[in-house]
Amino acid sequence: MSEISRQHDIAGSWRFSVAPMMDWTDRHCRTFHRLLSRRARLYTEMVTTGAVIHGNRLALLGFDAFEQPIAVQLGGSEPAALARSARICADFGYVEINLNCGCPSDRVQSGAFGACLMRSPDLVGECVAAMKAAVAIPVTVKCRIGVDDQEPRDALWAMTSAVTSAGADALIVHARKAWLKGLSPKENRDVPPLDYPLVQELKRSFPGVPIAINGGVQTIEAARDLLHKLDGVMVGRAAYHDPGLLLRVDPDLFGETAPFETQFDALEAYYPYVEARLGEGVRLADMTRHLLGLFAGLPGARAFRRHLATQAVKRGAGLDVLRAAVDFVQRNASAAA
User: Of 132, 242, 260, 279, which is least packed with CB atoms within 10 Å of its CB?
Assistant: First the structure.
């Protein structure tokens, strides 16, 4: 494979992905998302190096091969601990190690990692180099365009230079600043303005580096437009609140057939997974909470959500509850046909 072909192949790995989201992108969510798209790269919730090294690894890192391609996102700022964690994650079978340099929560601020690392690009470079030396799979970084009073162009270019010099395989940029003081984590997802042109300028300055963009992408059309100037798009809440859009990823962005024709078909394929987990003692609500937006915009969607919100949480709730919720939408679909 030529160097140019290799770079295109690597960049294609990040063409479309679903963002790592705390309390959202767990195993149940990822399994359902994989039913909607074979090609989307999926990410775990962020796991800290302390949890990986000292915690219940199977509970934290376990996943089914069906979820592949799946990447793990690590939180930490100590090169040796990140290298050790990366080796553990690689042994679990993940296809990528992603370092979180963008989360603005109180938890990461107290631990001096996440978005705090935007102030320490040289340290991030050391972390990347340590992980690259420890594993054979790609190591990537997800960052912001800056924090607090940093000048975004200076901060983002410094970070990119540091991590690419250390061997990072790709950079995923959430195209907003993070305000560590004055804004909550929720506000940090909406209040700081997006700056797509800055990330596109970054790509022009680092043409050989696969660069994906995150933040504010709501539709497949918007993703397609961004892919004219960048190597990848990472979608967060839109993929969670309206997972049906993932059915368009394979045909619209990769030129391949979608795994299923409709949301109903994908959900039918999810039933065996739900039944198996129920048999293991998993609560129905822990799985159906990821489905609440599946029929967004369709007649009966509100009744679907309401039924799951009130019934799936009950002790002993089973697959019949989910089927009954779906029936609210199917009846409306049949009536409209």
Answer: 279
Q: Which residues of 178-193 are buried (b: 16+ CB within 10 A; e: fewer)?
A: bbbeebebeebbeebe
- We report the CATH number of the domain holding residue 313 as 1.20.120
Name 174's Cβ contacts closer than 8 Å, sequence gap at least 6.
102, 142, 143, 144, 145, 214, 215
Q: Is there a catalytic annotation at residue 116?
A: no
Quote the number of domains for the chain. 2
Write the pLDDT tens digit of every residue in 247-283.
Answer: 999 999 999 999 999 999 999 999 999 999 999 999 9
Dist CA 34 CA 45 (whole Å):
16
What CATH number is attached to the domain comprising 147? 3.20.20.70
Among 197, 228, 254, the domain-final residue is: 254
Active-site residue identified among 101, 103, 127, 143: 103
* Domain ranges, residue 290: 263-336
Question: Would the pTM count as exceeding 0.85?
Answer: yes
DSSP 145: S
- 211 beta partners: 171
Cβ(202)–Cβ(211) below 8 Å: yes
